[in-house]
Amino acid sequence: MSDVTIYHNPKCGTSRNVLALIRNSGVEPTVVEYLKTPPSRDELQALLGRMGASVREVLRQKGTPYDELDLGHPKWSDEQLLDFIGQHPILLNRPIVVTSLGARLCRPSETVLDILPNPQRGAFSKEDGEPVVDAQGRRVR
Can you give the pTM of this predicted structure? Predict the structure, then answer.
């Protein structure tokens, strides 16, 4: 059983980069393709609690019905926003990673390095070629 879980969308470059960084640390995470198997309301609330985040902080706008549903309007309560995420899982921003060191929305992708329990095992560059980790496994700043 893995001690790292990623809420992942394989069509998202940032999510793919985060998954690759997790694997570069020598860990095969539990991968939850949240569009296929969305977290339950209770799981989502627990995840938000662990992240110390509000529902609004994990809402995704781009490529979602966010604008169409007018979710930026303050009239929507957290409970209502959770209902919208339940109806439209694409509204959940990604990737979210959970480890023994915490839970985070990993945007940008190198944010995951702050919560991985194992060090990087070698160089890593994002899909676009941007270096993130050097040959000694150290974060490139």
Answer: 0.94
CA-CA distance, 141 to 35, in Å (whole number)?
32
Gap between the Cα atoms of 96 and 51, Å rounded: 9
**Is 138 a domain residue?**
no
Q: Cα dihedral angle (20, 22, 24, 29), rounded to 10 degrees?
A: -100
Per-residue pLDDT tens digits for 7-53: 999 999 999 999 999 999 999 999 999 999 999 999 999 999 999 99
**pLDDT tens by residue, 106-139:** 999 999 999 999 999 999 999 999 999 999 999 9
How far apart are alpha carbons 117 and 95 in whole angstroms? 17
Range of the domain at 115: 5-133
Among residues 4, 6, 12, 58, the one annotated as catalytic is 12
Domain count, the chain: 1
- Per DSSP, which regions of 29-108 are E strands? 30-33, 96-99, 102-105
Beta pairing partners, 59: 92
Would you say the C-alpha torsion 112, 115, 117, 123 has a positive or negative sign?
positive
Active site residue 12: yes
